[in-house]
């Protein structure tokens, strides 16, 4: 937790200094790569929330609690899977980037799965 917290704090300071604006075009340092992984995850998470809201609106009211429970369980599974995926780099400078990249990949897969629910309901 301390490693992640300090990395996030450092990245927040780095971004607030204006250094992050062009960094994701061609990240060269570990800090840039970690920052860019965070940016990718932020975009995926926003899209996930938008698609989830559309699915929630499309499913019958009687199914909404199942959808909510499934989504919460999926989030927990994603986070645990991604924490495990970083076992080989635990404590290293790429740990947080590895976890974030994993979360982005799983989130994008979930987006596609949720979209398939929308396609089936049409």
Automatic annotation (TrEMBL):
Any single Pfam family the record assigns to this protein: LprI
Signal peptide start and end residues: 1-20
The Lysozyme inhibitor LprI-like N-terminal domain, residue ranges: 24-114
Family matches, as Gene3D superfamilies: 1.20.1270.180
Stored InterPro entries: LprI-like_N
Source organism, top-level taxon: Bacteria
Sorted UniProt keywords: Signal
PANTHER family for this protein: PERIPLASMIC PROTEIN (PTHR39176:SF1), PERIPLASMIC PROTEIN-RELATED (PTHR39176)
Name of the featured protein: Uncharacterized protein YecT (DUF1311 family)
Lineage: Bacteria, Pseudomonadati, Pseudomonadota, Gammaproteobacteria, Candidatus Competibacteraceae
